[in-house]
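Good morning C.,

I know you're traveling, so I'll keep this short. The sequence:
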Amino acid sequence: MFKQTPVAAAVSMALWSLAAMPAFAQQQPAGEAIQTVEVTGIRASMAKSLSVKKDATANVEVITAEDVGKMPDKNLADSLQRLAGVAVRTDYDEAEKVSMRGTNPDMSLILFNGHTVSGGDWYVADQASSSRSTSLSLMPSSVLNQAIVYKTSQANIVDGGLAGTINVTTRKPLAQKEQLGGVISVGAVYAELPGKSAPDTTATVNWKNEAGTFGVIVQGFAEKRYVRRDSVSRFAYGTSSGWDVINTTTMKGITDESLAGTGLKAADLNGVRLPGSMSSEFVEGVRDRKGGMFSMQFKPNQQLDVSMTGFHSSMNANNHGRLTSGGIYSMLLGKNDPLGGTSAAAINTNSNGQQVFAQIKNPVIVKETTLYGHELRVLKAADIVFPAGTTPQFVGNSEGFYRDGANATSSFLDLDGKYRVNPDLTVKALASITRGVGKTDRDAGTTFARYGTGFSYALNGLYDAPDTRYIGAGSNVPGLNADGSGYRMVGRAASGIKTTDREKSFQLDAEYGLNKGVIQSLETGVRYADHDRVSGRFGPAFKSATLALQGQEGVMPYPADFGEGLGGGNWDRTGFTYSPEAVKAYFDSQTKVTTPEFERRVNSEIDMRERQTAAYLMANLEWDKWSGNAGLRYVRTQVNAQISTPIPAGACDRTEPGKPATTCAAYPGAITTAGDAVSFYDGAVWNPKSGIMYYKAPTDRTFNNLLPSMNLRYEMEKNMIVRLGASKTIGRQNYNVLGAGFGTPVCDANGCRVTGPNPDLKPLTAKNVDLSWAWYFARRSMVAVNAFHSKIDGYVKTGATGTSTVDLQDPRDQTVRTFAINSSSQQGAKISGLEVSYEQPFGETGFGFTSNVSRAKTKVDDGRPMVGASDWAGNLGGYYENDVMSARLVANYRGEYVSSSTAPSPTANSQGLSVINGVAMPTAPTMAAPVTTLAFSANYNITPQLVLSFNATNLTNAKRAQYRYSEEEPQKLDVSGRQYYLNLRYKF
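The tokens, ready to paste straight into the viewer:
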């Protein structure tokens, strides 16, 4: 390995995004001998990564895919989580969203070949979240040439990565060794929990002409995997979900007499934390990913280099399942609402003409200290039972679903050109277009109420399922028994969603070599991006208001091994569900075709355009043992949002489906053709005044930011490097806090309020300092320590009443009044952390190891933990490689963090206050508990061209747990099973 000058390495990586080693070779000074060390696989990949990291001016982490398949990684997020300071969010044991240095994924910017990439989400909740984070589940690891993770910023990097930027480069045809070559991989994956196998195939062909001036790479992939998740939780649909406290004033069955023999009085239970439900959930689906990539490169001489790269990936991810939950709150409050309602207006229980309240028998109460330091009590175990002789009452719900047409796509096309005008001046242009879509054609499900006489539970800790038992509730199949126990169908719902994200961008960069004094060269450039985000729900019209029963056809019991990986002893795992075909057939029979316009639900829509303009100037510096860069980037962000705003009831006539569109003089912009979930039953008289109608209110905001940056690199010794980075970075707010629609207006004695967005939210900014030391003490060996600190301004605080107002109709008297918008505000936050990395081979034995650990301590002004932030993360891996085979075992650890959507609702109370026992304290977040995963990869060279590979992920079948105020309040526990991959790879 030869050594570049630091400036040359930095320019090669950051400006041109051409960090592949063949590009280095072209810059080798004349007359200097090149030392060739022919290694492949794990060792070659590690050597390249360390070489790039060592020569970089900025503090970076690097992954180089010298030989794809040598690591147990199936997508880019799998690979990135191996790096120090990088953590991932995992769904169904597949890494998807990437976060850096104790932040949530929205604060990290992911680039491909230097430009942003739009990607869709496959899961319906993520499709609606309007997050800026990029899902890497669509990006197979086989597309990777190199990924550079910038932990410190510099002026020539695309803005938007508040915590850091990841630039993934794809392969260039002229950088390949062979004139004609490629790799074909054929295999299968076996998912242990669903017990199903699926094909796993990729193919890559590269060609270049004899002169090495033109080349093409074409790649295709078809990778399918069945998934399943078994869960127990405190979740339920309706007001009975989550946790609350016992109140004997409203829970009238809790009396001194009912607690006789326990040593407790009714008053002793007041204020004790109580789980709202005990639920079990079975979800099964598929991840069917297909797509491809091509790259064409033309380099007629050393002055001109032009390439075009295209990529498309599509993943079908239909999924189905059922949630079975107990209605603890409803029972204690004497409510018999079939959907779990617990308000004063909800239906009361009725046994022999009397309202009845469930009692608490055999209570076990424990103390907890919340993560905020408050002392609380928790009802760890109890029998929740109605008095003897009570007829069956509501004891829970069972809700099934089938998400048909769940699909995510991601595509981009870029044209990249570099021209060396003269020995001192080089210019580069990059134009790109990208589009991502996440959609679910129909998320449909039915709800059953369950009737019985009691429910019993006992919490068994964070990592074991609780004991649960339904009392007097009959068998676990649809239908009521003669005594009134069992299941009764009470609800149905169907809707779809589609989110489209697209961007067009162009950037022009230039570098002028000075080679005078400290300043070696100057870089300058401009960039413009035009970004659109459109999202909304839609729903079919039902034929009739009558709830047609979903009978016994298509009923399926939960799998016989349901919940075996969850631990625990006696818990109810006998739920039923319906086959996807049965759910689809039921809703096909109950719905009818209207028009796409009528199916719109305007109140859910987000319609935004964001234009980003940037210009920068950066000086590359070098003197003696010092090198570095200093620069300034100017950024303008223009946000245009079309906000769905409700119209006073009855002000406009809604258009009947199939009829010409009506207009509204009072509100010319009224969307009269949208149904917004109003009924359109067969034979019913059309009511044009029904429901809430909306119009789009435009907003236009412009934000300007100056982002200075500096990176210094000092060679203490030949292989010992110290770096200092200081910068200001920007991160833009999630789309929904800027442009979500308004909710239902409410007026009372305290005034009028409405939930809605806050278009005045400015982008987040962070002032960052980073200090690192690295010692490359031997070949493929390194020890490094990084310390960093970031001060963030503009961190979103949800559930706050801001200064913005809107004029709407008072629902009490239909008078137009000024409403305060209950929305999001902003606050400050800080991140301080330390990262340590150490990797080394064991002499010439072929054995070696990699390791890193990071600590990132976050602090938000209001005292709450930062969403998505893990204090601790780490990796430990061992490998062996010789000329015949290689093997790698990698453990990944992620500490606890706030598990919530990376794009919370602007009106959510996740950062509000809850009053418990008369004390106002922060609302309990949902915390994801620490988790460690283990993955293995082995490759055997049958011949130099033919390789047999075996990969296994989630070897320990890790349990993923969540809790609320403390581990005494376990919230969710799930497992997804192990996955095994066997592939035969032929290289030619």
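Safe travels,
E.
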